[in-house]
Amino acid sequence: MPVHNKTYKNTKYKNPSRKSCEQTIKRILAREFEEYGENHHFKQASDFMIYFESLHPASPSLTKQVQRAVSSLHLARDENGYFMIHKTAEEYRAEQELSRLLETASLINLHDYTPVFIKTEPWKRSILMQMMASISEMDSLYETIAETVDGLILYTKFPDKLISYLSDFIETDAADQEESTS
Questions:
Q1: How many separate helices (H) and strands (E) can be counted in the chain?
Q2: Helix (H) or strand (E) holding 182
Q3: 0.85 exceeded by the pTM?
Q4: Residues 84-100: tens digit of each pLDDT
Q5: Quick check: 102 and 108 in contact, CB under 8 A?
Q6: Helices marked H in 37-59 — which ranges?
Protein backbone atom coordinates (compact mmCIF):
# COMPACT_ATOMS: atom_id res chain seq x y z
CA MET A 1 0.00 0.00 0.00
CA PRO A 2 1.44 3.33 -0.98
CA VAL A 3 1.92 5.87 1.74
CA HIS A 4 0.54 9.25 0.95
CA ASN A 5 2.26 12.24 2.32
CA LYS A 6 -0.32 14.57 3.60
CA THR A 7 0.73 18.10 2.98
CA TYR A 8 -1.32 20.77 4.52
CA LYS A 9 -1.66 23.71 2.33
CA ASN A 10 -2.56 27.01 3.87
CA THR A 11 -6.23 26.63 4.43
CA LYS A 12 -8.18 29.72 3.64
CA TYR A 13 -9.08 31.63 6.72
CA LYS A 14 -11.75 34.19 6.45
CA ASN A 15 -10.58 37.66 7.41
CA PRO A 16 -12.79 39.72 9.68
CA SER A 17 -15.16 42.13 8.01
CA ARG A 18 -14.36 45.82 7.84
CA LYS A 19 -17.12 46.49 10.37
CA SER A 20 -15.65 43.90 12.71
CA CYS A 21 -12.20 45.49 12.32
CA GLU A 22 -13.71 48.91 13.04
CA GLN A 23 -15.32 47.63 16.24
CA THR A 24 -12.06 46.01 17.36
CA ILE A 25 -10.10 49.20 16.64
CA LYS A 26 -12.63 51.25 18.61
CA ARG A 27 -12.38 48.81 21.53
CA ILE A 28 -8.58 48.94 21.44
CA LEU A 29 -8.56 52.74 21.45
CA ALA A 30 -11.25 52.92 24.14
CA ARG A 31 -9.22 50.56 26.32
CA GLU A 32 -6.08 52.62 25.68
CA PHE A 33 -7.95 55.76 26.71
CA GLU A 34 -9.42 54.03 29.77
CA GLU A 35 -6.00 52.83 30.96
CA TYR A 36 -3.81 55.81 30.10
CA GLY A 37 -6.17 58.74 29.58
CA GLU A 38 -4.99 59.15 25.99
CA ASN A 39 -3.50 57.18 23.12
CA HIS A 40 0.30 56.90 23.01
CA HIS A 41 0.61 53.78 20.85
CA PHE A 42 -1.52 53.96 17.73
CA LYS A 43 -0.67 56.32 14.88
CA GLN A 44 -1.35 54.18 11.82
CA ALA A 45 -3.16 51.01 10.74
CA SER A 46 -0.03 48.88 11.05
CA ASP A 47 0.08 49.63 14.79
CA PHE A 48 -3.12 47.56 15.20
CA MET A 49 -1.80 44.57 13.27
CA ILE A 50 -0.27 42.81 16.28
CA TYR A 51 -3.77 42.52 17.75
CA PHE A 52 -5.36 41.29 14.54
CA GLU A 53 -2.52 38.87 13.81
CA SER A 54 -2.96 37.36 17.25
CA LEU A 55 -6.50 36.40 16.20
CA HIS A 56 -6.11 35.82 12.45
CA PRO A 57 -3.26 34.58 10.28
CA ALA A 58 -1.12 37.36 8.90
CA SER A 59 -1.84 38.11 5.29
CA PRO A 60 -1.82 41.04 2.90
CA SER A 61 -5.62 40.89 2.76
CA LEU A 62 -5.87 41.21 6.56
CA THR A 63 -3.56 44.22 6.43
CA LYS A 64 -5.72 45.83 3.73
CA GLN A 65 -8.88 45.13 5.70
CA VAL A 66 -7.43 46.83 8.80
CA GLN A 67 -6.27 49.77 6.67
CA ARG A 68 -9.77 50.10 5.20
CA ALA A 69 -11.30 49.98 8.68
CA VAL A 70 -8.98 52.70 10.00
CA SER A 71 -9.65 54.83 6.94
CA SER A 72 -13.44 54.45 7.18
CA LEU A 73 -13.45 55.44 10.88
CA HIS A 74 -12.14 58.93 10.01
CA LEU A 75 -10.41 59.11 13.38
CA ALA A 76 -9.17 62.47 14.58
CA ARG A 77 -5.49 62.76 15.40
CA ASP A 78 -3.91 64.72 18.20
CA GLU A 79 -1.00 67.13 17.74
CA ASN A 80 1.45 64.18 17.85
CA GLY A 81 -0.43 62.19 15.20
CA TYR A 82 -2.00 59.61 17.53
CA PHE A 83 -5.57 58.48 16.88
CA MET A 84 -8.28 59.88 19.13
CA ILE A 85 -11.40 57.85 19.86
CA HIS A 86 -13.76 60.25 21.62
CA LYS A 87 -13.61 63.18 19.19
CA THR A 88 -14.22 63.75 15.54
CA ALA A 89 -11.66 65.62 13.49
CA GLU A 90 -14.02 68.61 13.44
CA GLU A 91 -14.41 68.59 17.25
CA TYR A 92 -10.65 68.39 17.69
CA ARG A 93 -10.07 71.29 15.27
CA ALA A 94 -12.71 73.33 17.11
CA GLU A 95 -10.99 72.61 20.43
CA GLN A 96 -7.63 73.60 18.99
CA GLU A 97 -9.10 76.87 17.67
CA LEU A 98 -10.79 77.52 21.01
CA SER A 99 -7.48 76.88 22.77
CA ARG A 100 -5.67 79.29 20.45
CA LEU A 101 -8.31 81.98 20.98
CA LEU A 102 -8.27 81.57 24.76
CA GLU A 103 -4.47 81.53 25.17
CA THR A 104 -4.38 85.01 26.68
CA ALA A 105 -7.83 84.98 28.27
CA SER A 106 -8.50 84.79 31.98
CA LEU A 107 -11.35 83.24 33.92
CA ILE A 108 -13.22 85.28 36.49
CA ASN A 109 -15.72 83.66 38.80
CA LEU A 110 -18.72 86.00 39.03
CA HIS A 111 -19.92 84.30 42.20
CA ASP A 112 -18.71 87.25 44.32
CA TYR A 113 -20.26 89.80 41.97
CA THR A 114 -23.75 91.27 42.14
CA PRO A 115 -25.81 91.58 38.97
CA VAL A 116 -27.38 94.97 38.27
CA PHE A 117 -30.02 95.07 35.54
CA ILE A 118 -30.88 98.06 33.37
CA LYS A 119 -34.21 97.59 31.59
CA THR A 120 -34.22 99.44 28.29
CA GLU A 121 -35.48 99.32 24.71
CA PRO A 122 -33.72 97.01 22.25
CA TRP A 123 -32.41 99.80 20.01
CA LYS A 124 -30.59 101.48 22.93
CA ARG A 125 -28.67 98.44 24.25
CA SER A 126 -25.58 98.45 22.04
CA ILE A 127 -25.30 102.26 22.19
CA LEU A 128 -25.49 102.19 25.99
CA MET A 129 -22.85 99.47 26.16
CA GLN A 130 -20.47 101.48 24.00
CA MET A 131 -21.06 104.65 25.99
CA MET A 132 -20.58 102.92 29.34
CA ALA A 133 -17.38 101.31 28.11
CA SER A 134 -16.04 104.70 27.02
CA ILE A 135 -16.62 106.43 30.39
CA SER A 136 -13.48 105.91 32.46
CA GLU A 137 -15.29 106.63 35.73
CA MET A 138 -17.52 103.58 35.10
CA ASP A 139 -14.61 101.19 34.42
CA SER A 140 -14.03 100.57 38.12
CA LEU A 141 -17.73 100.13 38.89
CA TYR A 142 -18.40 96.92 36.95
CA GLU A 143 -16.52 93.81 35.85
CA THR A 144 -18.57 93.00 32.77
CA ILE A 145 -21.68 94.05 30.90
CA ALA A 146 -23.89 92.01 28.61
CA GLU A 147 -27.00 92.51 26.52
CA THR A 148 -30.09 90.56 27.48
CA VAL A 149 -33.52 90.29 25.94
CA ASP A 150 -34.93 93.10 28.08
CA GLY A 151 -31.88 95.30 28.65
CA LEU A 152 -28.33 95.21 30.00
CA ILE A 153 -26.88 93.30 32.92
CA LEU A 154 -23.77 94.48 34.70
CA TYR A 155 -21.79 92.41 37.24
CA THR A 156 -20.21 94.47 39.98
CA LYS A 157 -18.55 94.25 43.38
CA PHE A 158 -19.91 97.72 44.15
CA PRO A 159 -23.65 97.51 43.44
CA ASP A 160 -24.55 100.53 45.59
CA LYS A 161 -21.97 102.76 43.89
CA LEU A 162 -23.01 101.58 40.42
CA ILE A 163 -26.71 102.04 41.11
CA SER A 164 -26.07 105.47 42.58
CA TYR A 165 -23.97 106.49 39.57
CA LEU A 166 -26.55 105.22 37.06
CA SER A 167 -29.49 106.65 39.04
CA ASP A 168 -28.14 110.15 38.50
CA PHE A 169 -28.51 109.67 34.73
CA ILE A 170 -31.88 107.97 34.91
CA GLU A 171 -33.34 110.63 37.20
CA THR A 172 -31.92 113.41 35.02
CA ASP A 173 -33.41 111.85 31.89
CA ALA A 174 -36.81 111.46 33.58
CA ALA A 175 -36.74 115.09 34.78
CA ASP A 176 -35.69 116.30 31.30
CA GLN A 177 -38.55 114.37 29.70
CA GLU A 178 -41.07 115.91 32.12
CA GLU A 179 -39.82 119.42 31.31
CA SER A 180 -40.02 118.81 27.54
CA THR A 181 -43.62 117.56 27.72
CA SER A 182 -44.88 120.57 29.78
A1: 7, 5
A2: none
A3: no
A4: 888 888 888 899 899 99
A5: no
A6: 49-53
